[in-house]
Here is the input.
Amino acid sequence: MNTPIPDSSTAMNMAIDAQLLKTVGVASHDATSTDLMKAVAQVAREQLSERWVQSQSADRENKARRVYYLSMEFLIGRTLSNALGALRLTNAASKSMMDHAHTLEDVRDHEPDAALGNGGLGRLAACFLDSMANLGLPSFGYGIRYEYGMFKQKIVGGAQTELPDPWLADGTPWEFPRADISFPVRFGGWVEHIGERAVWRHAGEVAAKAYDMVIPGYGTQKVSTLRLWKAVAPADLDLQAFNVGDYGRAAQVKNEYENISWVLYPNDSTPAGRELRLRQEYFFVAASVRDILLRHIMEHGSLANLHEKVAIHLNDTHPAIAVAELMHVLCDEHSMPWAQAWSICQKTFSYTNHTLMPEALETWPVGLLQHVLPRHLEIIFRINAEFLAEAERRRPGDVGFLARLSLIDEHGERRVRMANLSVVGSHMINGVSALHSDLLIKTLFADFAFLWPERFTNMTNGITPRRWLAQANPGLAALLDQNIGPDWRNHLDLLKQVEAKKDDAAFRSEFMAIKRENKVRLAALIERTTGVKVNPASLFDVQIKRIHEYKRQLLNVLHVIWRYQAIIAAPEADWVPRVTIFAGKAASGYAAAKSIIRLIHDVGEIINNDPRIGDKLKLVFIPNYGVSVAEVIMPGADLSEQISTAGTEASGTGNMKLALNGALTIGTDDGANIEIRENVGDDNIFIFGLRTPEVQAMKKGGYQPMRLYESNPGLKTVLDAISGGQFSPDEPGRYRGLVDALLWGGDHYMLLADYASYIDTQLKVDALYAQPEAWASKAIINMANMGTFSSDRTIAQYAREIWNIPVAP
Ligand code: 26Q
Here is the structure.
């Protein structure tokens, strides 16, 4: 029996009132925004549940080949609007909220974000799930049900402080606890070898319990599943302590296991090898592999054909221990011969790399692995021995080659290189933009690419148009619907049709009126969160992303200070009013990133209160950046700052979201900026600075930032103002370290090398913004050419070229 879809407003009102009574426990006329949020969610949940049941049984009957996306992070954000959109219930829900004396916008804002990720990599996983559902791919995402997601950022006295994010405190309407799905996950102990057999005598065990979230598609009735694991101490845990009444001890032991799924690890500048992080990685991987194998055996009765029906994808190296885990289960538990197991393993796994920076590559001390996963370490050693023997035959006697390929880094404390393990265990390896994938095979994985060139490929990232255009920018979505119909949601390439409208004065003015409304909404957010009033007629210049030295928020600040000084020097000049907007979190232990946040606040305090400046320049930092904040900022941006040192940003995805919402990009020749330029054309993007080969050459040739400081008086004045304490009069030395790192510390990310070109280019931005018609036409061209950056395109490509799963054309 199907629950009828409440797509009329009376049916919706009845369904909501029934849920208010049944699940929320309040009378309709007493319902608060939060109560209504829960009730609407329940109505949607019922529909999703039906789709879920149908999708599952269809895939089971078809014995479908499935893809399993393993990721430590899924940065989902809110679900309500997305679910209503997919179910085509937005209008009915909106009317019903009015009948309940509320607005859907207000009700929606009472849902906490599911912030189970740090940034780009986690949000990419969420966009990918959306596209897998949308394309009807038989698929699961697997991850961890963190009790606490990404920390909340609070600004105190201009500095970042971190607060916990207890997103589950009031429960979530979106999860389906699967009480019957639970797997033991073991840790520690030692390995016994009995003849050929290895037996892992583990020291402890924890239960992984499944919680599902249904991921609806927009273009289809099919859904995907996000299965998240929660760590629960086994029921019989330390009964002895419990029985003798030592509850303190019993609780302590319980916590030692359950802490595994407590909190998301922040992506630090250098990932410290923390034992709990390793336990998290193994915990979710072990549970997921068991779940996958169980489903496979139920459908096919044998593991010999695993690779024919199962594709497991590793989102970065975080789940790389899955390679050793699959070998462990196949060989030790199913008595499969090593060679057969290894062949299946390589055909089953594929791996995406998201970074080239050596300090960000994951490695684990051999000693730690020995302690936590002794059998897996043995397996890794055996994989390594056989692999190196094969490599040696290709280049006999080349010890450097073998040392670079080895899964073990032998310099100093021996460490396991998770990237090497991922490559060796996979049949396909990809980067996330054309440039990044090219650099991967030329640098990081050059030796592997020599061995197996056919395994390396590119899959340029994408974003879901449902959330980042239809949901975040309803005004623009409506304009597109009027002009080209609604199908762009599933076929973003159709946006190309509006390019012709760039010269249509009526379209242009509607387009800019929508941008203006979005800027008014953004200005309200700015005032609410920072207290600063900004003029929506100004150019809204936006840099929103994690705070990291390579992303060069500091270069942006140098430009702001340059502009401040220039306005003071020439107050009568015809300045284009500008608001520079930052948002982003710094990892709690990343001192330089935190110092940049503080500098932004200190500089903003001076500029925003300087009566000589007025509306000509404002500088604001919107706190607690996350998916929901991004949904307000993206549509209100005029200018998108994508200014990483060339060769450092693997792809970027915010660059795509901003351009899709009609912002022009000022950016370096880096990551996906390059492909954005190729799509929109050189005249419709502001590219500046050194390119990757020039960065490399300048580093080799002995880069001397001090020379630039001495030869560019404007730059000198800006840096002197910072280091001399002009923006921190209460503590003049506050930013000396930051400036010294540029002048004396080698300016690792070459801000000074790109400074002059950046300032010049910002002047070109001003000049274009002063011609609103020309600006509008370029903004339209940008939006119209973002079709290729739909995550539907990316996922279809993965499905065809890596996972070997059919997708409808
Ligand atoms: C590793 C070990 C221990 C603790 C944390 C981590 C960790 C966690 C998250 C390391 C890295 C991350 C996240 C990386 C990330 O977000 N990379 C970004 O991925 C995007 C999607 O491909 C790209 O667009 C960005 O360019 C890339 O920086």
Summary: DSSP finds 33 helices and 24 strands in the chain. Residues 118-121, 124, 265, 267, 271, 277, 354-355, 362, 432, 461, 649-653, 671 surround 26Q (CB under 6 Å).
